[in-house]
């Protein structure tokens, strides 16, 4: 109880003010490394709170859109500087709130700083093209205008980077924003919004409303005054959000799941492939949409790959992400832990061989957290549940193949198409992979996870709504094109 009295309450951010919800209800955000520790209380908001934020954003949009891109960029540079100064503190909150290691949390926060600076610079770049008209006396060109008010629905797995890679381009192109962060990581998100507040953004340009996804998230998708909705999260919820936005003619962008394959060819650098598979599959406890989950290994190198992989997996130190020797932290929540454990049971029941891990970690202090062992299955059939559904946990499925062509066919045998990688030195393998793999992010001799902020990011098939985030690609979602003809 004494812990709870010291715990801070975080408010919604509406029209430049920190305000409590109309409901006067809060919910606790807990530390997945120790379920008895409350990191903070966040608002359990209602539609009335959302309506206030939307009204503020709509008012603010009128003048925000009139500023030059360079002036808007100045605000983003200021927010970047403040976030950079607060990096350690915000990263620590992230680790305490959603479990990833402090090293990863610091890298992610720095990524947020860099994304802000990248989009601040975009404010000085071109927003249109001159196109020759069929009439000599006409000047024809394109220009871009903001959508208006943008709703951002973000997940818990990258609580700094994802809100920022959605908000920064929205803002630089003249939109105003309402962020609804995932409740599991809303304290971290509130600290990011504090950076925007300190940077002095005009009132109403940036807003944050916390609360249940079914109320605030769905409310954003359905709100008649929200002109664009950008979402990252699960496929089921993404489709609901997309449908609701489509019904009312709003623009939407969905980034959802993955079932990302790695192919290990017989000529691969096996140590590199092992390293990339472990890093891509198990870092952040496998809680990335780009995480490796299916590993196709050519039969000639299968045994050596498996042996080296297991030797390394056995060395993984599971523990509290704030401890420097920890390599893998807990699952984000008890329900995520139970999801992972239920997939392990399904894997076993459907006949896959569990060759490492698969259990909850309960030794000593780990018993208070949502820890699971890094897990490896073999003899996995492509039709088994663990080869088809996104697990979002540290679970690798090894599948032996007899050719690269077979690996490609199996790798593509999924509803998802986010990220994929191949380990090989053979140029014809590389070219076949680049041409044939059905994925938006294609890696050669590198892990499936990890994206660069200046490059387009998004998936094929059911992994996304086919738009791309980040880099200059973001302008496509966050603006509308106007084609202008001026006759002299
Ligand atoms: N693609 C990715 O990066 C992510 C994928 N996931 C997948 O989703 C699974 C479940 O995780 P959750 O956190 O429950 O994901 P989720 O899809 O429920 O949550 C993502 C965001 O959507 C909001 N939301 C929830 N219900 C909503 C609704 N009806 N309308 C609008 N917004 C809503 C949530 O509050 C959160 O902000 C994971 O096991 C994983 O497979 C989860 C997080 C990120
Ligand atoms: O791999 C990354 O760095 C990005 C992953 C991502 O966007 C996600 O998990 O939602």
From TrEMBL:
CDD domains: ALDH_KGSADH-YcbD. The keyword Oxidoreductase applies. Residues 18-484 form the Aldehyde dehydrogenase domain. It holds the Pfam family Aldedh. It comes from the Bacteria. One of its GO terms (molecular function) is oxidoreductase activity, acting on the aldehyde or oxo group of donors, NAD or NADP as acceptor. The active site is at 255. Keywords: Oxidoreductase. The keyword Amino-acid biosynthesis does not apply. Belongs to the aldehyde dehydrogenase family. This is Aldehyde dehydrogenase (NAD+). It comes from Paranoxybacillus vitaminiphilus. The lineage of its organism: Bacteria, Bacillati, Bacillota, Bacilli, Bacillales.
């Amino acid at each position: 109880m004494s812990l709870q009295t010291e715990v801070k309450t975080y408010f919604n951010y509406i029209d430049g003010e920190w305000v409590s919800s109309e409901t006067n209800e809060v919910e606790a955000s807990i530390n997945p490394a120790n379920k008895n520790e409350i990191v903070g209380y966040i608002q359990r908001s209602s539609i009335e709170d959302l309506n206030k934020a939307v009204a503020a954003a709509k008012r603010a949009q009128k003048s925000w859109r009139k500023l030059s891109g360079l002036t808007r960029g100045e605000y983003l540079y200021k927010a970047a500087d403040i976030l950079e100064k607060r990096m350690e503190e915000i990263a620590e909150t992230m680790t305490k709130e959603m479990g990833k290691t402090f090293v990863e949390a610091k890298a992610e926060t720095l990524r947020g700083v860099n994304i802000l600076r990248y989009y601040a610079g975009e404010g000085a770049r071109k927003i249109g093209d001159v196109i020759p008209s069929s009439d000599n006396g006409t000047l024809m060109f394109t220009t871009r205008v903001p959508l208006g008010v943008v709703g951002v629905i973000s997940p818990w797995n990258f609580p700094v980077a994802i809100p920022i890679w959605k908000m920064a381009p929205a803002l630089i192109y003249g939109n105003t924003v309402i962020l609804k962060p995932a409740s599991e990581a809303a304290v971290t998100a509130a600290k990011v919004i504090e950076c925007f507040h300190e940077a002095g953004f005009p009132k109403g340009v940036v807003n944050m409303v916390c609360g249940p996804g079914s109320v605030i998230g769905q409310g954003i998708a359905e709100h008649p005054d929200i002109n664009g909705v950008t979402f990252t999260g699960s496929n089921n919820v993404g489709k609901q959000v997309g449908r609701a936005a489509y019904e009312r003619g709003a623009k939407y962008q969905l980034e959802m799941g993955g079932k990302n394959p790695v192919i290990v060819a017989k000529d691969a650098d096996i140590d590199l492939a092992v390293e990339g598979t472990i890093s891509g599959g198990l870092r952040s406890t496998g809680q990335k949409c780009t995480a490796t989950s299916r590993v196709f290994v050519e039969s000639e190198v299968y045994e050596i790959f498996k042996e080296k992989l297991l030797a390394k997996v056995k060395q993984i130190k599971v523990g509290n992400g704030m401890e420097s020797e920890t390599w893998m932290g807990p699952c984000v929540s008890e329900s995520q832990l139970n999801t992972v454990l239920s997939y392990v049971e399904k894997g076993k029941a459907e006949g896959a061989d569990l060759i490492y891990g698969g259990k909850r970690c309960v030794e000593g202090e780990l018993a208070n957290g949502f820890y699971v062992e890094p897990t490896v299955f073999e003899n996995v059939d492509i039709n088994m549940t663990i080869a088809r559904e996104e697990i979002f946990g540290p679970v690798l499925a090894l599948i032996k193949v007899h050719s690269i062509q077979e690996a490609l066919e199996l790798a593509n045998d999924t509803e998802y198409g986010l990220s994929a990688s191949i380990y090989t030195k053979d140029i014809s393998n590389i070219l076949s992979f680049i041409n044939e793999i059905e994925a938006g992010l294609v890696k050669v001799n590198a892990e499936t996870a990890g994206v660069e902020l200046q490059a387009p990011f998004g998936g094929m098939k059911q992994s996304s709504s086919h738009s791309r985030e980040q880099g200059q690609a973001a302008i496509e979602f966050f603006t509308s094109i106007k084609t202008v003809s001026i006759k002299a």
